[in-house]
Specification:
By secondary structure, the protein is of the alpha+beta class. It is built from twelve helices and nine strands. The structure holds flavin-adenine dinucleotide (FAD).
């Protein structure tokens, strides 16, 4: 496809990026094209992911915890991190999830709320991809309402003892360290749990129809005994996990557009090549109306993402603004993926093309890091001052 016809070139979105951002984007795009894209259909089909090998490759180019500073992290801008997420998710939402959970959930929790010893112990190894992290907040009976969590940590002879079950945890079965949120007598607290601790297990959740190239697990904690200094000392209450979720949601604002872009590029290519009623599918007005509308939404989503990136880099972004970005961009991305699938006809339902894979993945992206309904409630709360959550 020539530059002139690329959907994002129509709006000249690149004119809003600085050279460093373009360079980081190019590095991630190259990595995805060389090491991820050629294998995706097979990984998706098999429901597997060589996450450890990939994490090491991503660590080599500084992708893990890239927007954090110190401890071997790259210290890039938030906008650059967003652009990296976009390129990763243009490959597959599962690949972006691997990086989001590692950097924005597990590493960020330790970086922001951890002790100096916890940071020194885990962050450098997580930045290189030698150690993998997961983030356990959701439970079988506590998703959108994490305050309903049952996992408990009690003090016993100077130690902490954790009991409970976490559900739908990305990277769970392959993690070396789990950041686990639990109820204590002092309120909700985070714990840094080495996954080889006795009483900890993480069975993988199988038979998923979405995010198949991603590891999703249950975390089972049965009397897991941890030393007193395993607790994240700098935060108590739900604002701890919520601060991490805002980080990860920000990555999704950009990431979801990567999946949408890949679908739209595929549909543009396919419609140019597909002959129907004696001419190309792209030459029909109905097809062009679809392509034009999708290009508009992709471009608008990109402008929104970049605006939020600049706000975050200025240190002024709010959680409600991140909710606006996540709600809009994931909702539009899934609409684009489904519309592109119609353009591909029957060919669109197979793994020969990435479109339905992206559409299926985006079902999970719509749900995790706050469902669409939760983000509507966050925005509604900001608009009216009334909380309608319960
Ligand atoms: C592939 C995948 C990976 C995940 N990875 C992680 C992870 O790494 N770590 C982690 O902690 N969690 C993870 N999650 C869990 C995810 O964050 C939760 O699924 C999500 O928060 C929603 O919770 P739930 O599934 O229990 O749905 P529920 O909370 O039961 O919601 C069900 C429906 O009710 C709606 N709803 C909820 N509250 C309201 C309300 N007040 N008013 C109206 N409607 C409402 C929701 O929007 C939704 O449509 C992952 C999920 C998936 C699918």
């Amino acid at each position: 496809m020539s530059d002139a016809t690329h959907p994002l070139a129509l709006l000249d979105v690149d004119s809003l990026l600085v050279d460093e951002e373009k360079a980081i984007r190019a590095t991630v795009r190259e990595l995805v094209d060389a090491q991820v894209r050629p294998h995706l259909a097979q990984w998706y089909d098999e429901g597997s992911l060589p996450a450890r090998e990939l994490a090491l490759e991503m660590g080599k180019v500084g992708l893990l915890g890239m927007h954090l500073t110190g401890y071997g992290c790259a210290g890039t801008s938030a906008t650059s991190y967003g652009l990296a997420c976009l390129e990763l998710e243009a490959g597959d939402s599962g690949i972006r999830s691997l990086v989001s959970v590692q950097g924005s959930l597990a590493m960020f929790a330790i970086w922001k709320h951890g002790s100096e010893e916890q940071k020194e112990e885990w962050l450098p190894r997580m930045a290189t991809g030698e150690a993998i992290g997961c983030f356990g907040l959701t439970e079988p009976d506590a998703g959108s309402d994490p305050a309903a969590m049952r996992t408990r940590a009690r003090k016993e002879a100077g130690d902490w003892v954790l009991d409970g079950t976490k559900m739908w945890i990305t990277n769970g079965s392959i993690a070396d360290v789990a950041v686990v949120w639990a109820r204590t007598d002092e309120g909700i607290k985070g714990f840094v749990v080495p996954t080889d601790s006795p009483g900890f297990s993480a069975p993988e959740i199988k038979r998923k129809l979405s995010l198949r190239a991603s590891v999703t697990s249950e975390l089972v904690l049965e009397g897991v005994r941890l030393p007193a200094d395993a607790v994240l000392p700098e935060v108590t209450g739900l604002r701890g996990p919520l601060s991490c979720l805002t980080e990860a949601r920000f990555g999704i604002v950009f990431g979801s557009l990567g999946a949408a872009r890949d679908c739209l590029e595929t549909a543009l290519r396919y419609s140019a090549e597909r002959e129907i009623f004696g001419r190309s599918l792209a030459s029909f007005q109905l097809t062009q109306a679809k392509l034009a509308d999708m290009t508009l939404e992709l471009g608008k989503g990109m402008l929104l993402a970049l605006h939020l990136g600049r706000l975050k880099d200025d240190g002024r972004i709010t959680a409600a603004q991140v909710s606006m970005g996540k709600l809009n961009n994931v909702r539009e991305a899934i609409a684009i993926a489904r519309e592109c699938r119609t353009i591909l006809g029957a060919a669109g339902i197979t793994l020969e093309h990435p479109v339905m894979r992206h559409a299926n993945n985006l079902e999970s992206v719509l749900t995790y890091e706050g469902t669409s309904e939760v983000h509507q409630l966050v925005i509604g709360n900001a608009l009216t001052g009334e909380s309608a959550f319960r």
